[in-house]
Every structure is written in C-alpha cells, then in structure tokens.
Write a structure and sequence with these properties.
Blueprint: H1 11-32, H2 41-70, H3 77-111, H4 114-117, H5 123-152
Helix pairs in contact: 1-2, 1-5, 2-3, 3-5
Length: 155
C-alpha cells in the first residue's frame, strides 16, 4: 500500500476531510447569516455546493475514522475510483461557485458600490464566505489530487 498524504484511510486524510467540513460550515454559516443572499443565484449556488461539500466531507471523515479504528484498507481501486470521481466533480462545482460568488461580491463592492447604497446588504459577510469557500476548495483540491495520485499508481 502506497503512503500518500491526504489519501483515504489515513490520519492526514481524516484531518483534511475534517478541515473541509469546518471551512464549508463556516462559509455556509457566514453566507446564510447575511441578509438577502438567496436573492442572488451565485450566492445560492455556492451555498448549495458548500452544503454538498459539507455532507461529502463528513461522510468521508466518518469513513476514515472507521477505517483507522478497525484497520481497514480504503486503497482498493474500486473505492478510490468512487472517491476520486466525486471529489473531482465537487471540486469543479466548488470552484465555479466560489468564482461566481467572488465576481458578484466584487461587482457589488467595487463596481456599482451597491454595498454603500444599501447598508442592509451584508457585503462583508459575503466576502468572508467567498474567502472561506476558496479555502474549502483548496483543501478539496488537495484531497482530489492525492486520491488521483494514488489511483494512478494502481495502473
């Protein structure tokens, strides 16, 4: 069995998944607590993808905990293919949602100065949520690449 940092069934993989859960939850909470986020489709899309990311990362963290506790091997080609395909799909969705929300936030804050005109619009919370979403995506990309690297080593 190859040792790849962040791969499923390892301590680093569990830490990576739990970090994804924390950042996704923080980003979701920051977005939802802001007034009017559901009026804009980019923010709503990012919130939906973050919720999917949170559930998927929590599922894999539980699977990692189970594998570490019972000394199970999650490095079979079938398991890795399943993890890698969903990780890559979620990483793509996360990146598109974070980029769309970042562009909308920049548009509101700097281009049309909507944040200054409407003080109820929570632009700082939106900016914080987008920053946390990008951090979640970076962690997701790291786990996607480690799983892909391990999967390729089988062939």
């Amino acid at each position: 069995m190859k040792r790849v940092v962040g791969s499923p069934g390892t301590w680093s993989g569990m830490a990576l998944r739990l970090s994804q859960c924390v950042f996704a939850a923080a980003s979701t909470f920051s977005m939802v607590s802001g007034f009017g986020y559901s009026n804009y489709s980019a923010y709503f899309y990012m919130d939906t993808v973050l919720t999917l990311q949170l559930v998927w990362s929590l599922y894999l963290a539980c699977k990692d905990i189970f594998a570490l506790r019972n000394k199970k091997d999650l490095h079979t080609p079938h398991d890795l293919l399943f993890f890698v395909v969903i990780d890559w799909a979620l990483a793509t969705l996360m990146f598109s949602g974070a980029c769309a929300s970042a562009s909308l936030t920049i548009f509101f804050m700097w281009d049309v100065n909507l944040c200054g005109a409407y003080s109820r619009l929570a632009c700082r919370q939106f900016a914080l949520s987008v920053t946390l979403a990008f951090m979640t995506w970076l962690l997701q990309a790291a786990s996607s690449f480690s799983g892909f690297w391990l999967l390729v080593s089988f062939f």
